[in-house]
Amino acid sequence: MNTYEFIVGGILPYLAVLTFVVGMAYRFKVWFKTPQPARMTLFPAPQGSTAKAVLAEALFFPSLFKGDKLLWCASWVFHATLVLVFVGHVRVFTGLADSIMLAVGMTKATIDKVSVTSGVAAGVILLASAILLLARRLAFARVREISGVGDFVALLLLLGILVTGDLLRFGPHFDLAQTREWAWSLLSFSPVVPHNPTFLVHAFLALLLVAYIPFSKVLHFGGIFFSQSALRR
Ligand code: HEM
Asked: Which listed site, 3, 24, 87, 127, has its alpha carbon 20 to 30 Å from 81?
């Protein structure tokens, strides 16, 4: 293992997770301690059950739907596909998804087919919707005005992760067993790092994103659960 591989695969994972945990703890502390003198809401105050309304907001973005249908469409597809990719990565890392699918009676061949179809679709859809979201920030003066550096950093980081993820998916075959070996070796503090350069860039950017989340707008999902309409009913 050379120095670059050791830093990306043997040091950065620990630093990224530590930064994420400490950063999130700090965020929670600030959220819990922030005084809430008046009843303000991030989105129209829900009628009826708050829990149901907050859950609906988190899952289907109804307020955004009312405000901007095109943005809602790109944004919902983007987030839903991210969830699909997350599930796919549980398979990349653990093989747990395989065990569950085998247990419910699927064959290995079917599992591979489902993985290829959903992985390919997710990779393409996610990249297309991230490009659309970036183009929107650049193309419309009204949106450009309210976009900060952080918005672009998050989107560019994500684009880098998506492009390298798609290269792993569509390029020369990358053996997922190496990712699993790497993940487990990190738990025993004796990292075995894959040598594939595309994998290393993908992991590097993904780990930067993990460390960046608590300090960036990527954390907007947390705000929904701390908005006053959620807390004060
Ligand atoms: C350290 C963390 C990560 C590792 C080790 C990792 C590893 C991988 C690997 C090995 C593949 C190829 C899968 C295959 O060919 O079957 C892949 C694909 C992909 N990754 Fe990651 N990944 C990480 C984080 C992320 C994150 C945070 C995102 C998005 C925000 C992401 C998005 C993608 C996409 C879009 C693909 C292509 C579609 C797919 O195969 O699901 N990855 N990743």
From this structure: 24
Could you tell me if the CB of 13 is within 6 A of ligand 1? no
Contact, 202 vs 139, CB < 8 A?
no
Residue range 135-192, pLDDT digits in tens? 999 999 999 999 999 999 999 999 999 999 999 999 888 888 899 999 999 999 999 9
Concatenating the DSSP letter of every residue in 20-41 gives HHHHHHHHHHHHHHS---S---
The number of CA neighbours under 13 Å toward the Cβ of 91 is 19
Query: What topology does CATH give the domain 3-231?
Result: Fumarate Reductase Cytochrome B subunit (1.20.950)
DSSP state letter for 103:
H
Q: Out of 54-58, 128-132, 147-151, pick the least confident.
A: 54-58
Ligand 1 near 126 CB (within 6 A): yes
Q: Token pair for residue 110?
A: 């079917």
Domain positions in the chain are 3-231
Ligand 1 atom at shortest distance from the alpha carbon of 203: 1
Q: How many residues does the chain have?
A: 233
pLDDT score recorded for residue 178 = 93
